[in-house]
Amino acid sequence: MTAEPLERSLDRPDQLTRPGARPDDDRPLVLRTAHEGDLPELRRLDEEVFREFAYPGFLLRQLFDMYEEHFLVLDDGTGRLRGYVLAATRALGADSWILGLCVTQDRRRHGLGRELMTEVLSRLRRDGIGVVRLTVEPANLAAIFLYRSLGFRPEEPDGGLRPDYFGPGMHRQIMRLDLPGSL
């Protein structure tokens, strides 16, 4: 159970402004829970960032239906989403997986991925989750540095490296974070 009413927690927008933004791109971003009406834009965003590895539309819809409270977006106020994070929690147990984190190319390197992760980790902790895992491409050093700075560590054995995790040649590193203070 949550310590505060769920509606208040889900509908609380946080204004995020991008340091050094261009004059035509200086609208504040709102970090909020995804809405059903965001699904077409989430699909566009996922395809833009992940290309051939994007979630199929039907799966994105089902992930939204199952994990809505842990599906957060960055909304620029014009109908375009600039990022998202999605955490999936087991029905029985206190484990969760980050299934996706992305920020559009034009908004990277300004702490927005950190903002998304910090908020979803806060919500997971509030909801009693004790362990959070994720996978990352071993060559994606920017993401690995971000996750390490948030406290994630490679899950043993073998430093978390899982050859062919998503198929031949699609290696991943599994990282884990134990959430202190979870309920």
Which secondary structure elements does this structure contain, and how are they paired or packed?
Elements: H1 6-11, E1 14-16, E2 29-33, H2 39-50, H3 57-67, E3 71-75, E4 81-89, E5 95-103, H4 112-126, E6 131-136, H5 141-149, E7 153-154, E8 161-162, E9 172-178
Parallel strand pairs: 5-6
Antiparallel strand pairs: 1-2, 2-3, 3-4, 4-5, 6-9, 7-9, 8-9
Description:
The protein is α+β, with helices and mostly antiparallel strands and 183 residues long. 29% of the residues lie in helices and 26% in strands. It has helices spanning 6-11, 39-50, 57-67, 112-126, 141-149, and strands at residues 14-16, 29-33, 71-75, 81-89, 95-103, 131-136, 153-154, 161-162, 172-178. Strands 1, 2, 3, 4, 5, 6, 7, 8 and 9 form a 9-stranded mixed β-sheet that branches. Helix 2 (39-50) crosses helix 3 (57-67). It is globular and about 45 Å long. The protein starts with 5 loop residues before the first helix and ends in a 5-residue tail after the last strand.
Précis, in short:
This protein is α+β, with helices and mostly antiparallel strands.
The secondary-structure class comes to: alpha+beta
Strand runs, count: 9
Give helix % range: 25-40%
As a percent range, the share of strand residues is: 25-35%
Unreliable runs: 1-15, 17-24
Report the C-alpha radius of gyration, rounded. 16 Å
Distance between the termini: 9 Å
Largest sheet: 9 strands, mixed
Tell me the overall shape. Answer: globular
The secondary-structure element order is: HEEHHEEEHEHEEE
Look at the structure and give the mean pLDDT: 84
Discrete helix count: 5
